[in-house]
Design goal:
Helix content: 25-40%
Largest sheet: 5 strands, parallel
Number of helices: 5
Strand content: 25-35%
Distance between the termini: 13 Å
Strand order of the largest sheet: 3-2-4-5-6
Order of helices and strands: EHEHEHEHEEEHE
């Protein structure tokens, strides 16, 4: 069973709201680097980057970050498929003494964010890291919370949240899927 919980209009308004919040929180955007976690987090980061460029007339440097080999659950996630492919980061930007805005689509256990924090060490020592999450669904296993949240969606463990983006799904929406056991 599937239910659309964020349609395209709400999706784009959420990107706009998060972009406004980032601009409001930072007096100066000169020291910010935006980092999107591949795959959909990177596309969301690009949307936020474009919206900030439009609103504040500032082009933020950005990185699309692949966290594949930083995950602590790789052996479980990949046990039934081929070896994972690591595509690295889109480019190398030093984040040393920069304020990093890390972007991902869904916050669930927190393990993806922990892996991203480990991966970011390869880019330098950030002055500060803030987290943007499009949908926070709860069920944390690690003490991680987002600084900017698009929508909080309480879920059960037999539900799945899918953030769908134009690049990967040909639409902007968020679906809640219920799986029966």
């Amino acid at each position: 069973m599937e239910k659309i919980i964020i349609d395209e209009n709400q999706f784009l308004r959420t990107i706009s709201r998060i972009s406004h919040e980032i601009i409001e929180k930072h007096q100066n955007l000169d020291n910010i680097v935006i980092v999107g976690i591949k795959r959909r987090g990177a596309e969301l980061a690009e949307l936020i980057k474009k919206k900030i460029a439009y609103l504040a007339n500032v082009e933020l440097p950005s990185i699309d970050l692949d966290i594949t080999f930083y995950r602590d659950d790789l052996e479980y996630a990949e046990s039934h498929s081929q070896m994972p492919t690591y595509s690295g980061a889109s480019n190398f930007i030093s984040i040393h003494n920069k304020e990093v805005i890390l972007v991902d689509d869904v916050l669930y256990t927190g393990r993806t964010i922990r892996a991203a924090l480990d991966a970011l060490v390869d880019f330098g020592r950030a002055a500060k890291i803030e987290l943007v999450i499009f949908v926070d669904r709860g069920h944390r296993e690690l003490p991680i919370r987002a600084d900017y949240v698009g929508k909080n969606v309480p879920t059960s463990r037999n539900e799945e949240v899918q953030v769908r983006t134009m690049k990967f799904d040909n639409c902007y929406e968020v679906a809640l899927l219920s799986h029966t056991k």
